[in-house]
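Lecture 7 notes: from sequence to structure.

We start with a single chain of 234 residues. Read the sequence below before looking at the structure.
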Amino acid sequence: MQSGFEMFAAAGLVMQASLPVDTLPDWATHPMVPSGVDLSRYQSLVMLGQGGTRLWEYIAATSPRPDDTRFDNTAYGLAEKFVEDHIGGAAWEVVYPGHALLPLGRLAELAGWGRPSSLGLTINDRYGLWMAHRIVFLVDAPAALVSTDTSGHPCDTCLDTPCVTACPVGAVDATAGFDVDTCAAFRIEVDSVCAYQCLARLACPVAVEHRYGSDQMAYHYGSGLASIRRYYGA
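Now the structure, written as tokens:
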């Protein structure tokens, strides 16, 4: 039988971490409480994320009729199999995706996945900006997973900052950070060049071999665009 690490990695969930619940800082646990999560029932917080294009390829090969929930459904199914096969079917509960507004970027940093970039996205030594959380769940058991540690911050040694100059509306600033509202306003304009892609993200020179293809980019950014339009009433 594959280990939990191997099963997840084979499907493209290469970003992995298991954190003991009783060591989590308050900023990580407080957002779960309003959603009715009883943290006293669980021992571990497990985080899984994609890196590069492998998960996209895995879903294309295993989901003959893909829909807009393909990523969520695949991640849930793999997590469920992990709980059943590797930790004895212990009680578990998904907290992301869900109603809890988890600080995913800070959790990624806590887990050693990377640090915030000028775009607001976590950047990792191996996968650059081409990584994302897919599922976070609590489980009533120790969950031994291999942490995906990062040894540095690529942005610290980037002198040209191509992500800054590539943004057509100046929403990316290496010092001031990422201007969410400016980016969103431009993305929802008619025929916006950033509707289904991010020029600043594409300009990043880190881990270009893991960059999403055009179909995957359009899928993720199309989903995000729909959420932006709802939030801004566009």
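The chain is about 35% helix and 15% strand. Keep this in mind for problem set 3.
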